[in-house]
Amino acid sequence: MEKSSPPLYTERAELYDLVYQWKDYRREAQQVRSLLREAGVGAGSRVLEAACGTGSYLAELAWDHEVAGFDLNEGMIGQARRKLPEVPLWQADMLTVEPEQVGGRYDAVLCLFSSIGYLWPQDRLREGLRRLAALLRPGGVLILEPWVRPEVWEEGRPTLQTAGHPELDATPVEIYVARAGVSSSREVGGLRISVMELHYLVARAHHGVEHFVEHHELWLCPMEVLVDAVEQAGLVPRWLDEGLSTGRGLIVAKCPAP
Ligand SMILES: C[S@@+](CC[C@H](N)C(=O)[O-])C[C@H]1O[C@@H](n2cnc3c(N)ncnc32)[C@H](O)[C@@H]1O
Fold first, then answer.
1. Could you tell me the pTM of the whole model?
2. What is the dihedral of CA 125, 129, 130, 132, to 10 degrees?
3. Among 98, 132, 177, 220, fewest CB within 10 Å belongs to which?
């Protein structure tokens, strides 16, 4: 099933870091670092982020790891390259990626901020996880942050976020972004899919105000289904209720050593 990517990941990727300026990547990367240490992946090890977006986790983890990343969308990779000119970054799809495309196998593969939620139905999820598992060396670790758990999803909830930035793209412009939506969901082939229709207002100095709408559909995948899919990929998962963001949990999965 082909799905087109939302503008925030493509032609409007320059807005991504502004929209998520509230997110504490430094604190979350520190949590990831601790989990990696516990799993035996220490400083200096090779870490790959799948669906790395604009590279905000990589920027933090680059302090003490050899990092690399890939993402489906060139727009996101373009932003990441500007931030991290020294870091190897590739355009690749979790559904087709192979080790040769992304610098071989790694001590750890990360897939964070719910990027896995875009992989549905079940056969796409399984294929994506199988591909991510194949990027690990034996004994390596996958850290997977799911989308919101179905039991905590709030239907019909309005959201409004605003963000402003005095300087974007190193030009002396002022820019403000407002993003509003109301959460909903639909049934597709027995799966519950969250649907977010997000309206953006972008006010840019000397440019006026622009409006665009984007559509996200992520699977409200039950925890047991996700854990099972990680096992099917040949990994040994551990579920953590307390993850990086509220209501999402986290999976830390080990690739068995031979
Ligand atoms: C919510 S963003 C997270 C980006 C980054 N991990 C972060 O935390 O800022 C979701 C990302 O998943 C990427 N993505 C979606 N489907 C993908 C796929 N099949 N393969 C690789 N990347 C994908 C999108 O392009 C987007 O960059």
1. 0.95
2. 140
3. 98
